[in-house]
TrEMBL record:
Keyword ATP-binding recorded: yes
Alphabetical list of CDD domains matching this protein: STKc_PknB_like
UniProt name for this protein: Serine/threonine protein kinase
Species of provenance: Thermus arciformis
Keyword Transmembrane: no
Biological classification of the source: Bacteria, Thermotogati, Deinococcota, Deinococci, Thermales
Molecular function (Gene Ontology), one example: ATP binding
InterPro entries: Aur-like, Kinase-like_dom_sf, Prot_kinase_dom, Protein_kinase_ATP_BS, Ser/Thr_kinase_AS
Length: 264
């Protein structure tokens, strides 16, 4: 049974050697024949099989290259978080659970010197009471200085639109966009064109929320235009555990114009 059809791969429901359900990811022919795309799939196989965390989708076995390339992953019956969001807004308690689990997975990757680069609801998979971050083919070393990077414009940090490089700070911003979407039921920045979306990320403040004041302030700091003023994922997770508590520690974001810069 076909579970999903993406730009680079098809995912099928299959059976493992002991009869267990698995998600079988098969790269498309054009991916296998394109060196750059084939390398990305091979990275996904390698990372999925080697990285272990309760909130990363677990790889079971795979073949990275060739006509028979595949990746078998644990099967999570709830589909993606994006699909779940289409059914309606999350209760705040459940949104906190999602963000706590995915946030811990990101912190684990950062501790390994890696960035996910493409944090968004369609890359979060839903199990029985558990949420897991997947699509590990986009992982990149934090010290990688190459100009090419992965990412989806609705979740892209302002500095990346201006030629900056991915970092833990840009990852925190993407996580913040997803957090806003989960906690309010809508994305903070919209645009009919890529240029509209870019300008929204660069220039517009996130719309007001009805969240508890402490959580609202933390969310706005997570979405700070200036990466140097941005809250970290760890700091935001701490606020999530006590959203009604005293104001978060640290200097609040000062309203100021985002500095324009270019990568040298």
């Amino acid at each position: 049974m076909l579970l999903g059809l993406g730009q680079t791969a098809q995912v099928y429901l299959a059976r493992g050697p002991r009869g267990e359900k698995v998600a079988l990811k098969i790269p498309k022919k054009e991916v296998r024949e394109n060196p750059r795309l084939a390398e990305r799939f091979a990275r996904e196989v390698a990372f999925s099989l080697s990285l272990r965390h309760p909130h990363l989708v677990r790889g079971l076995w795979g073949l990275p290259f060739g006509e028979e390339a595949f990746l078998a992953l644990e099967y999570l019956p709830g589909g993606t978080l994006e699909e779940r969001l289409l059914k309606g807004a999350f209760p705040q308690e459940e949104a906190v659970k999602v963000l706590s689990q995915v946030g811990e997975a990101l912190l684990f990757l950062h501790g390994k010197g890696l960035l996910h680069q493409d944090v968004k609801p369609s890359n979060v998979f839903v199990g029985e009471g558990v949420y897991k971050l997947g699509d590990l083919g986009t992982l990149r070393a934090k010290e990688d200085r190459s100009p090419e990077y992965a990412g989806s414009p609705p979740y892209l940090a302002p500095e990346l639109f201006l030629g900056g490089l991915p970092s833990e700070k840009s990852e925190a911003y993407s996580f913040g966009v997803m957090a806003y979407e989960l906690l309010t039921g809508r994305r903070p920045f919209l645009g009919e064109t890529l240029e509209d979306l870019r300008n929204a990320h660069l220039l517009l403040p996130p719309p007001p929320t009805r969240l508890p004041p402490r959580l609202d302030r933390a969310l706005r700091r997570l979405l700070a235009k200036n990466p140097e003023e941005r809250m970290t994922i760890r700091e935001f997770l701490d606020v999530l555990q006590n959203p009604e508590g005293p104001p978060a520690q640290g200097t609040p974001e000062r309203p100021r114009r985002f500095p324009l810069f270019r990568r040298k």
